[in-house]
Amino acid sequence: MPQSTGRDFYKILGVGRDAQDAELRKAYKKLALKHHPDKKNGDDTMFKEVAEAYAVLSDPEKRKVFDRFGEEGLKAGMTGDQADSYGSMGGGMGGGGMGGQGGFSMPPEFAENLFSQFFGGGGGGMGGMRGGNGGFTFVNGGGDGSDFGGMGGGSPFVFSSSGGGMGGMGGMGGMGSQGIPRRSPSQRPAKRQKRPPIEKDFAVSLEDLYNSATKKLKITRKLYDEPSGRFVDAAQVVELKLKPQMKEGTKFTFKGLGSEEPGYDPADMVFKLKEKPHPVFTRSGDDLSMKVDVSLKEALSGGYTTVKTLDGQNIRVPFPSLRSSSQEVVLHERGMPNTKTGSRGCLKVLFNVKFPEDASQRARLAGSL
């Protein structure tokens, strides 16, 4: 057990003192995802402590010092060899300790740098959202976040208690003079980013628009489940409130309704309105148009026809004696409502003359006129 006061890194990670690398990695991943400050109810202090605990216990030299002297030994800048020497002499730290040899501290960006090595976000390890399913992938195809790009086996951290620092290790960048892995400014992960909006079409009928219907859509996204430490599918229903004047291409935006993933704000969900073709009416702005066939006899004499509107009303439409094969009658205030202007468009009824198909029919019709 450590012989000095300080934090217990084993307890912070929730592992035993004999924990191997795989168990340390698993514990770090679960706790880092749980406490990440970008998450709702995240804990920045715990996030940093978890990173610090993993950094120490995953490094054989630092772990040796911690096991012998606890956190105070690390702060004093002791090396693994010194820990062995003190251990063989049976002595404690005593006296003035080992100060002045570099010490042990973590820069503010350290926790995020470590997180990026596992999950991406500046280091490129994250595969991102594929097909809207959420989740993430890891570098080197490890699948469990156990591999670090370009680093090979063993711990991804090498500390130095003496001045000068170490050169870059497998893409980790230079090592600071206090033995803390550091990245150049260009390598450090950027602040939290946001994925591009996810756009989906949804189709509505003219009747839906005319009646200001409310459409309900069910979406499924990935959310982080704290008890299990995993991303799980979660269903949610959103409501789209239609207005008659809405045109094709109108967008409904729901902020942050995309899947959760480490290091990113959830994307916005955008639903684009698509208008279904109608069997009777065509639309142009607030105006509606429809076609009505009439016989040649009706066309020559004029008359009435009955049409059914979008709201289900049957209205009688008069038409005069037609002077051409087609003629339009405009009915004002019978088109689409507009809740902004308080007015309605027109209903345009196009009468098409239907001529007899054979000569005998045409002859009989001519004789009756």
Automatic annotation (TrEMBL):
<dbReference type="InterPro" id="IPR002939">
    <property type="entry name" value="DnaJ_C"/>
</dbReference>
<dbReference type="InterPro" id="IPR051339">
    <property type="entry name" value="DnaJ_subfamily_B"/>
</dbReference>
<dbReference type="InterPro" id="IPR008971">
    <property type="entry name" value="HSP40/DnaJ_pept-bd"/>
</dbReference>
<dbReference type="GO" id="GO:0051087">
    <property type="term" value="F:protein-folding chaperone binding"/>
</dbReference>
<dbReference type="Pfam" id="PF01556">
    <property type="entry name" value="DnaJ_C"/>
</dbReference>
<dbReference type="GO" id="GO:0051082">
    <property type="term" value="F:unfolded protein binding"/>
</dbReference>
<dbReference type="InterPro" id="IPR001623">
    <property type="entry name" value="DnaJ_domain"/>
</dbReference>
<dbReference type="GO" id="GO:0006457">
    <property type="term" value="P:protein folding"/>
</dbReference>
<feature type="region of interest" description="Disordered">
    <location>
        <begin position="175"/>
        <end position="199"/>
    </location>
</feature>
<dbReference type="InterPro" id="IPR036869">
    <property type="entry name" value="J_dom_sf"/>
</dbReference>
<dbReference type="Pfam" id="PF00226">
    <property type="entry name" value="DnaJ"/>
</dbReference>
<keyword id="KW-0143">Chaperone</keyword>
<dbReference type="GO" id="GO:0005829">
    <property type="term" value="C:cytosol"/>
</dbReference>
<feature type="domain" description="J">
    <location>
        <begin position="8"/>
        <end position="70"/>
    </location>
</feature>
<protein>
    <submittedName>
        <fullName>DnaJ family protein</fullName>
    </submittedName>
</protein>
<dbReference type="InterPro" id="IPR018253">
    <property type="entry name" value="DnaJ_domain_CS"/>
</dbReference>
